[in-house]
Amino acid sequence: MKDAIRPSDEDPRRRRRTERGGGCGDRLRRRLEELERENQRLRREVFELMLDKQMLTEAIRGSL
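Above: the chain's sequence. Below: its structure in token form.
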């Protein structure tokens, strides 16, 4: 009976998953790269908007 219950590290399904690289690693890596690119794009947009706001604020102060 003891042989019928294997520890999880001897589970053949787990062993196959780790041998193949963990299953969905490529998909997760691509998604992470996509999110990082989008994050950089959004950071640039926020920076541009902050510069625009600063420029407009200075222009308003100068006209008063």
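Residues 25-63 form the longest helix (39 residues).
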